[in-house]
Amino acid sequence: MKTTPFHICPRRIIFIGSPLCLGFILLFSLGALAQTVPNSGDILFTHVDADADVFEFITLKRLNLRSLYFADHGICANSTFRKTEDTFGLSQFTLLGDVPAGTLIRVASDTSSVYVNEMDARDGIVTLRASSLNLSGSGDQIIAYTGVPYGNSSCTAIGVNSYVAGINWAMASGWNLGSTSSNNSKAPGTNSDYASNNGLESIWYTGGIIGEVSTFYSNVGNGLRNTGNWTGTNSGVGVFTPVKNIQFHESNYVSGQVAILNMDSQGVSLNMSALLFGSANSDTRYMVVANENSPSINPVERYTSYQVSNDIDSADFVAISVASLPSSGISHGSGKIVYFDYSLPSQFYLKGLSKQICYYIYVYAVNGNGYTANLSSTAANFNFILNSSTLIAY
Checking CA distances to 261, which of 201, 216, 294, 348 falls within 20 to 30 Å? Predict the structure, then answer.
């Protein structure tokens, strides 16, 4: 360990766990869930531009997107595909196997000169230049699905398709009772289905919403399916700016203790799994910030693009302001991002610590990703000093 001048750590909130609570703590950590295959309603479309052959959607939960496909086939009256158009799948993109909730996925034509593949989801935006869809400004739809796509050109196929979401545009009449041409479609029947009903070739969400995922589906108020929150044009622009003003809900610290398990010459092991945050779920991530000698300034909202390390010397500093969202013009504070993942760890090893230093630890719940992220305004926090051979908690 490094040795620095002695510093008195002010006595604050004591969050040191006793052995009696460890059994509960260890059981609590078993509830973490992994990413899932997309199901009905797990994404929502936020943008489509028929002239430039680009579209965008947002993930509403943590997903493995490699099993997701898109088609501009219409859906027949019997709910199979009228197969006369194109399909495009994401199976080739290995980095899309675990995508956080709240990520905007932007898909461009493979002939686009504007976009390249950019699959680092930490800033909340993934861009794919790979689509083979040939979208029509005379009326069209994009249907997201998984599994075998049952259908044929005469709407006589038999089978049950697994639809995830759908968007219909450039047809003032919207969805119909069954596809009769490549320019119209029956709705896939998910709670993510959206029809613009305005006849415009290019449409995108321009509203602003913050809340639980359940509020995003609304077709009234600020919901993503309210046509009053969309705008459009008949001259496609081919770009996705501005970033959609969508933010997930906030989860604040409620109760629970952090247990200090042990220490060695390099650092300490902490059990954080008994911390409880309100309105958290399996898609919530937890960000741990560590700072030396003084409290850390809260991380800025709507930013998650960090390189994370449990070594306090090499971890990224917290971002405290962003000049241009989602991720440029960053100003940093003094705290370090030492953990950022889906579960509260039952054994987290924090290393690179110094003797006789006061360490302030903050634990935030994070819902969403990048520009959609919402961090706890009330974080769990505690502090400790590493003495010559012991650990003193305050």
Answer: 294
Both ends of the chain: CA-CA distance in Å? 21
Q: What are phi and psi of 306, to 5 degrees?
A: -115, 145
Three-state secondary structure call for residue 271 = strand
Q: What pLDDT band is residue 389 in, cutting at 50, 70 and 90?
A: low
Region 213-225 average pLDDT: 97
SS3 46: strand
CA torsion 364-381-306-284 (nearest 10°) is -20
**What are 52's two structure tokens?**
């430039």
In 3D, which of 170, 375, 198 has the Cα closest to residue 277?
375
For the residues 60-70, what does the mean pLDDT come to? 97
Residue 110 structure tokens = 């493979």
> Element (H or E) spanning 110, and its range?
none
Residue 368 has pLDDT above 50, yes or no: yes
**CA 164 to chain CA mean position, Å:** 17
Nearest alpha-carbon partner for 289 in 336, 340, 241, 344:
336
Q: Is the pLDDT of residue 20 over 80?
A: no
Give the integer Cα–Cα distance in Å for 172 and 272. Answer: 54
Residue 158's Cβ-count burial label (10 Å; 0-12, 13-18, 19+) is exposed
Q: Kindly report the backbone phi and psi dihedral angles of residue 337, in degrees, each rounded to the nearest multiple of 5, phi listed first.
A: -85, 100
Place of tokens 């390390």: 309
User: Both tokens of residue 209?
Assistant: 């919403």
